[in-house]
Amino acid sequence: MQRPRERTIDLTSDTVTRPSPGMYEAMVTAELGDEQKGTDPTVNALCDRVAELLGKEAAVFLPSGVMCNTIAILVQCRPGEEVLTSSCAHLLTMECAAPSAIAGVTVRGIEASGGIFSADDILRTIPWTRKRNVPNPTLISIENTCNRGGGSVWPMGHIWEIRQIAVDRGIAMHMDGARLLNASVASGVLPSEYSAPFDTVWIDLSKGLGCPVGAVLAGSSALIENAWVWKHRLGGAMRQAGVLAAAGLYALVHNIERLEEDHKNARKLAAGLGRLNGVRSKWGEPETNIVFLDVSGTAIPAAAIGERLLASGIHIGVESEFELRAITHLDVSEADIDTAVLGFEEVLKR
């Protein structure tokens, strides 16, 4: 007999979080203006705060991370040019081909374990000499942490080696930093240190930071001024957006250090489920807050396991025939992890 639950433990993504009472209060009391005209003081404060955090000259508040990636490409590439990134990068696999549909560029994926490619991988990918009949690579994009790589964290040494090649070849650098602050907390590398080798970088507010919506793209003053043009063109101007920006300011004060709790819970979840017959963590012990589970050893399809877990009040992501994904966040407690492990065990027994 199933036990009734008051709520669902949602492990599908860290985008499912709800604003805390303190964040709601900050949003309700935010000072507002017109962000299109540059007169919303709360939006301006958020942009200044993120630019300082990432060590860049300027920043722009945008509705989504997809728009951040797209605009970063638009301000640094021309139609017909090429962007290099991991073959499992969100930019390539999960953004409806926005780079090609909107920016007119091609995106080449580099095969690499955990989504982390090396300088040698770049050298093997780009042409030694400029060819008229080959797309010109003008941007290298790195996703940190790499979602499909199990929340993998980029080593700074790798990044600087790639940066040197980029400088030598006249190629710009972009970081998809949706979970950059997770990488920073896990590695001890400051966000500004991670951002230093990149021409553009952004952070997501609606993932680990727990905001309802939004992302912030940072770079040089010239690039961000051009980004504003594309923000208007793409319909991203939001008027009294201080209501949303206030959530971001609150999160930057209250929700960065606590990301380690999510990482700890992810490790506990992976360890607990890894003790069950037929279940293993695809990427070993999680570095951050993402756990991919290989359930092929159970001979039960992932979709079936997902349905049974949901009936027990546990929501988990189904990625493929025998792969599940769980992401920990501020609305999942350590006690929830214990409950999820027990629920998973019961489902497999049934």
TrEMBL record:
<keyword id="KW-0175">Coiled coil</keyword>
<dbReference type="Pfam" id="PF01212">
    <property type="entry name" value="Beta_elim_lyase"/>
</dbReference>
<dbReference type="InterPro" id="IPR015424">
    <property type="entry name" value="PyrdxlP-dep_Trfase"/>
</dbReference>
<dbReference type="InterPro" id="IPR023603">
    <property type="entry name" value="Low_specificity_L-TA-like"/>
</dbReference>
<protein>
    <submittedName>
        <fullName>GntG family PLP-dependent aldolase</fullName>
    </submittedName>
</protein>
<dbReference type="InterPro" id="IPR015422">
    <property type="entry name" value="PyrdxlP-dep_Trfase_small"/>
</dbReference>
<keyword id="KW-0663">Pyridoxal phosphate</keyword>
<comment type="similarity">
    <text>Belongs to the threonine aldolase family.</text>
</comment>
<comment type="subunit">
    <text>Homotetramer.</text>
</comment>
<feature type="coiled-coil region">
    <location>
        <begin position="249"/>
        <end position="276"/>
    </location>
</feature>
<dbReference type="InterPro" id="IPR015421">
    <property type="entry name" value="PyrdxlP-dep_Trfase_major"/>
</dbReference>
<feature type="domain" description="Aromatic amino acid beta-eliminating lyase/threonine aldolase">
    <location>
        <begin position="10"/>
        <end position="295"/>
    </location>
</feature>
<dbReference type="InterPro" id="IPR001597">
    <property type="entry name" value="ArAA_b-elim_lyase/Thr_aldolase"/>
</dbReference>
